[in-house]
């Protein structure tokens, strides 16, 4: 049976990260968290989200009444999120109504910069949960968006909106603090005299860490100021620089692992220097030793949060690739890597470095990306795999129609490929009274083709990765995938149109389509049931090498776009009242349209691949389609990619194809 935990009231006042952590420490396994809060202190909201994300049991968060502002951030930590009947979700940019600063312009700038950092961190949380891009999340936050249960589910912020259950009233909160509060919430705030007291006194009074004797020297809580190194705060410019540096430090993923967001306010208020905070973070990270603490059981049961995954190696890489690809291809719904769907490329670089035991807490974004690109991390491989998915998806979607008529064979090298032919007919012969079997010989056919290499090299700059620019994955890789498919399609179409439309010359010195081959209409015939009937008879009458009938069955009708509509009409099934009016080809031929044909009137009838062999294609070593390779950039300051495809196609026999030539 799942445990339950109720989080009601003002975030950071009625409950905070420490009380939530203490409550979770007493339980294990699944837990249902009932949340009803109008918001509170932004730092505490992100801190509680971090605590809940680290809990290894399954978390169902049920919103009862309301989850607004900081409470909406807490809500995102659920493995399953339910919106009760009548409940409300509100998402907006973090704000700070009451400050302890003197009010100078410099200090207001400091507060604004701190809020910007919080805003960025919170946007990442919303993006990870909903799968929406950061840019869309930022617009939702800036607009102060309110959601009904159904709207929250549709937007990806919740999983379910059960209609049953008792409707709970919203938590006590002065909702006039928000710009677009619903009128009923404002009315309740006024009618009930709800006020927002953001003083820490109520919750601190219930915590054993508070000094009982106020006459004793004041000691800053360890959660806020672990290193008391007083900074010179007399110069506003130096103070702004200190606060900015501390804020940047606290918002880094690795620093957040040691509770930096909950410590930031204390660092600022207590005058902690950047150097002291930096030393503390590095010391705490070293003490955690994350690599040695993880076990297989922990990897299977942990919560999901970017920067906190307990998996490693290929399993983690696969999750990251799955998540990032959902940003590249909006149609892709991440499954195993949902928690990484909103992660930036620089955050992924951080995770890769962490997996290699490298501390990046003090490095700039550009430096961390540089380390991930050129070190021993898996970052380049992850980018390559995302590119491969994008490349392959576009390649598969743009496949040549004619390729369906070709049989794929194996190629182990770039030498000419020969087809195999039987010199005698395929019939079995009667064995005489002496038990003698007569032999047929198997020979290499004279028709050949070879695999050739096609490719392109391009680069992704370090600047593009730092800027989280995914255009190269969403634009360049799909274009190259389409280009690879187009390369194949042009080769297929070009083979059919060689020799002024009669196809390639075969080993007998005649073109693929030739009167002597019995597969060429005497003159251009308008596509119709009658002309298809003539073509089918010609294919049925084809004979093998020994002159025996091989009964070729047509399977495909291949036409240019100009004949597509007519072909659809010719192949349409008709409910005829007389036998003479019935369509014998309805449902028997598959229509293929090739836009690369230069002729608007020529059409083809062909058999299924290998029945008999006609058109064949091959990839080197059976590696189908384009492949992506990567290396550290030399001419490009970043990563260089090479797209390569080893492919070849050719006709090995004329018997499986028939053509009606151009008019």
Automatic annotation (TrEMBL):
Cellular component terms (Gene Ontology): endopeptidase Clp complex
Gene Ontology MF annotations: ATP-dependent peptidase activity; ATPase binding; serine-type endopeptidase activity
Pfam family of the protein (one): CLP_protease
Alphabetical keyword list: Hydrolase, Protease, Serine protease
Domain of life: Bacteria
Keyword NAD: no
Annotated GO biological process: protein quality control for misfolded or incompletely synthesized proteins
Descriptive protein name: ATP-dependent Clp protease proteolytic subunit
